[in-house]
Structures are given as structure tokens and as C-alpha cells.
Amino acid sequence: MKKIGKIILIILSPVILCVAHYIFSIFYFLFPFTDSIVTQGIADDGTEVYVIQAYYNLNEPYRVGLYARYPGENWRYSYLGHEDPRWREATLEFHQNQVSVFNRGELRETYTLPGPEIEINSEGWDGNGYYFPDSCAWTMEEIFQHHSEQTDS
User: Fold this and answer.
1) Which of 78, 91, 115, 137 is packed most tightly, with the most Cβ within 10 A?
2) pTM higher than 0.85 for the full model?
3) Where are the beta strands (DSSP E) in 1-97?
4) How would residue 59 be classed by pLDDT, with cut points 50, 70 and 90?
């Protein structure tokens, strides 16, 4: 009987370790399963920039996007990721009319900042992201709401 118990323990040990590792990984990479501002900054010309993440589910954990607004203009959304683990160490680097977005020291994307000289097509696209009509007065709560709604579609 003791021999059977040892065999069962030998067989189940790797399974238990794998399950424990999986649970630890979920919490390490995804916790706390909430929407948040990852990082923010203001360019020399006053352009506001926010990197926002919204939790979706375990298969596609976080949708990450960059929101930028030239003073007095509408907000622009630019895609950063949709199957990402939680961003914890993001930074922005501004240079001339561009912003570079880094996550954990790795360059994720460089975008041209919105401004008065940017041409926007009829679909609201300027080559770097989509503009939201009548969004210049959006609060941060409204941006979060919009970004969260994008994860539901």
C-alpha cells in the first residue's frame, strides 16, 4: 500500500507543481486585473500623453493604448497591444514632435504627436491613430470608459 502511495505521489507531484506555477504566473503577470494609467507625460508644446491599459480576460489579458491630445484639440487613440500582460514599468520619451513608448525598457512604438499641422482623413485617421470627434473636453473617466468599451468589442 505504501508503494502505491509513493507512485501516486510521484505521478501527481509534477501536476501539482504545474498547476501551482500556472496560478503564480497568472497573478504575477496579470494581477490586479484592473484598468489603469500606465504612464503619462506632457510634451514641450503642451501635448498630453497617456498610456492606458484595460483588463479583458485571461486569453487576451490587457488592451494597451496611447491617448494623446494637443491643447484644445480632440483626443487621438493609437494601438499598443491587445494580448499583453500587465504593463508595470512603462516610460515615455519625448523628442521634437514624437513620443517613444517603452515597456520594461523595450521600445514598443514611436508616434508622431498630434498637432495643428496634422492632416486627418475623413475616417479620423492621421497615420498614427484615430481621432474622436467632440472629445476635446473628455475627462480621464471618459477616456477610461471609451478604452474599456473597446475591450468589449
Assistant:
1) 78
2) no
3) 36-42, 48-55, 62-69, 76-84, 90-95
4) confident
